[in-house]
Amino acid sequence: MKTGLAVLAAAILTAVAVVPAVPAVAAEVPASAHATTARGATPTPSPSAAPTSAPTQAPTPAPTSTASPSTAPQAPAGDPGIAEMNAARNHTMGSTIPSSDPASGTAAKSQFKASLGVTGVLGMDVSGWQTGINWPSQYAAGARFVYIKASEGTDYTSSQFSTQYSGSYSAGLIRGAYHFATPNTTNGATQARYFVANGGGWSPDGRTLPPLLDIEYDPYTATDHTNSCWGLSTVDMSNWIYDFVSTVQNLTGVRPAIYSTANWWNTCTGSNNTFGAYPVFVARYGTSTPGALPASWVNWTMWQYADAGTFAGDQDIFNGTQTQLTQFALGAQNHPPIGSYDTATLNSGSSFSVSGWAFDQTNLAAPVQVQVTWNTPSGVTQTTVTANQSRPDVASVYPAVGNYHGFTAQVPWSGNGQYGACITVIALPGDSAGNASLGCKTSFFSPASATVPSSQRLAGTDRFDTAVQISQHAFPNPGVPVAYVASGMNFPDALSAAAAAGAQKGPVLLAGTSTVPAGTIAELNRLQPAKIVVIGGTAAIDSSAYAQLAALNRPLQRIGGADRFETSRLVASYAFPSATSAYVATGSSFADALTAAPVAAKKGVPLLLVDGSGMDPATASYLAARPFRAVTLIGGTSVIAQAWADSATSSGITATRIGGATRFDTSAALVAAGFANNSASSAYVASGYAWQDALVAGAAAGATSQPLMLANTSCIPRAIGDQFVRLGTSSYEIAGGTSVLSSDVDTFAVCY
Model pTM? Predict the structure, then answer.
């Protein structure tokens, strides 16, 4: 369990886009020493810090190119030391990190990383200390976003903000504003209003990042580690932050991001784990990954990994692709609930139970609701439970989450067959990412199989190769009595051939119109059939393809009529000359007849294709000229009209009908009519929507007296699962690749 959680945690903390390697640059000139300056009771605004309004946004320019990062630093100026920042009441994002954060070391300047252990989109953050930035060169060097300092406390706004905000926009960067918090001067709401009024706004244009709160060590006292938390208790600090971010959200309509370090956050908020709804911009230098995150988060949105390098200001990376960065700028919160669906356990005669764990990333402390959709022999129902049970293994991987996020649920036993459960984690109110599916699991029990039946997939590179794979599986030894070859381009001829081939213990292989694939030729050489029968006229398999088959020097015969209906009658006469009954299916579609082929082969009767609107004279003449006493119509009256059955009855032929509400119900009914209880330990399963694989599987199933049952694209219908119980089936062969029957069919997933 712990290993699986660790893997999931690693996956969550891995970004999803590949970016060029981050190049190394020359060492920076050391900044002036970080001096500790005592702070006065009433801050005095810097004379140059006149308030500025958010710039008017121009139409979005189209970037001229997407460049890899340059190896030449583009920063026009570095940050001054803490003493100078303190004197100006103007601090940059991360200015207190090198000297105060244990995880980032104590060096005055960290160096640009030669490479990062994560991938994403590169960017930067700048302040009024960076003047004269050449924004086109920043874009050319690889920067795609920038956070720009707008304000600090309630007494400073950057004189460079308007120029930087519009200049970066014109160069093609996605930009946003940040506020350096001074929690000991005013409450959070007051600073939030000041920030929004002085550049911290937002618009959903895909080019404006959500506003950002920069909250870090007190630069006036943190360097001697006596007051890193601005004189506030952990409760007061948590309240201050909530006051700020909720006010910004109310004013702008988007959740702001929060910039901090794990050390500051956990120290100054008491490891508060309720702020996950707000994206985190984490700071950590000197490492290849962001490392441990602040307590509220299990995933990071941005990471400030160095305070100098290629770009002006600090060096940042977004955890995602360029498209996801745009979505983030549009206000998308890509952090839905997460969890694990651990077990689905069926206890025969007792219960079906599930277990797992889940939490919502927007508030790690809050328990979430988990919805379980049950699918059992008694029907489909839903249960909602709270994920609040003890799971210490979850806490060991996500310490901030705590022990109590596990869940279990169960329903009573309701008989043999399929038991399925799908689990959805319900997002907490306000989590715009929405609910999260943890997937579905299926269990199974029958007297023949206490677990889901085992499966083997028979699939090739295309329909022709799949036919070869099925032939090799069903006929492992050479010397078969016959091999049928039909067109792989359309279904009617192969449909007629399937019952005949199965009855005569041979395969159906597929050919193109004018050529026979090399794999088909090789399989015919391996099989060494006593005879090869080509089904269809020259429009289906022309003389060129026929000549390839003749070159094999086996007895060769073509059976083909003027249309699909005549061809089916000719095949019936050839393979079943003395039959007294027949299966009848529409020639305009294939679904109903797919399962009928092996049933017809098992009974030694032909499969006739007809125009289901009414009995045509040619079919009437064919039936009258032979000793037919009964026909079984496949499908409802919408495919073979009652008038057709009435015509058969009036000519002295008993007409019965096998059909269901869906093609899968019809398939189950055909198998029920053709195979006795506990008579098939193995079966074939093929797509109910793709005829190519099902038809060749029908011949193989007929030759080995196995049923063929139809599946949906990604699940086994309950009607089919019930036949597995009745037949005593414990294994099955899947005909076709995952493009026609997904891997869920391998696990016997029940359809909802």
Answer: 0.80
